[in-house]
Design brief:
By secondary structure, the chain is an all-alpha fold. It has 2 domains: about 80 residues; about 55 residues. Helices cover about 70% and strands about 0% of the residues. Helix 1 packs parallel to helix 2. The longest helix is centred in the N-terminal third of the chain and has 51 residues. It is flat and about 120 Å long.
């Protein structure tokens, strides 16, 4: 029985050592995790102050405030530039009124008509040239026995044929003899 008691005490002692090692490992890993969590909280607090602004500074609105200021400035610029829903006011409306007074709108229409006229003349000229040269180019567009591609192939002279050489000896098939 003494051996049995000694064995149990030794097993108990080993179990306690392992348990203490595990407790130390868990404690150290918990402290590491706590340090990581503290670092994450500091970063989050820094990001929060960037977004919201510093609480001790009333003039610092953070990124959210800056975006809001930019949006309201852009909206005021739009109201200055564009006319209202009735078409009155706005810098663009005033500019078009000045262009009408100066005759620039008439010049713009004149330039448009010149461009459209040039395009129409180019289309008509291309059509007339196509009609005049139709007999020469008709074979290229019509499908018939002698298309342009076939005529090109006919014009090309074929290469002279070379005599084939027998490069190997082939075994002859056995001839069956008639039996008497």
């Amino acid at each position: 029985m003494e051996k049995d008691d000694f064995y149990k005490r030794e097993q108990d002692h080993k179990w306690r050592e392992r348990t203490e090692e595990r407790i130390v490992a868990l404690t150290s890993s918990e402290s590491v995790q706590n340090d990581r969590l503290d670092e994450i909280e500091e970063r989050f607090a820094h990001i929060d102050t960037l977004l919201e602004g510093r609480p001790d500074d009333k003039n610092d609105g953070g990124l959210k405030g800056d975006v809001h200021d930019l949006g309201s400035g852009l909206q005021s610029l739009r109201t200055l530039m564009a006319p209202d829903h009735l078409g009155n006011g706005g810098v663009l409306n005033r500019l078009s009124a000045l262009e009408k007074k100066a005759g620039l709108e008439e010049r713009r229409l004149e330039h448009r008509w010149k461009f459209i006229t040039a395009v129409v003349v180019a289309i008509i000229t291309s059509g007339v040239l196509l009609v005049k040269s139709w007999p020469e180019i008709k074979p290229y567009f019509t499908a018939g026995e002698n298309t342009a591609l076939e005529r090109l192939q006919e014009d090309r002279q074929p290469a002279p044929k070379k005599a084939k050489k027998n490069r190997g000896k082939h075994a002859q098939a056995p001839v069956a003899e008639d039996e008497p």
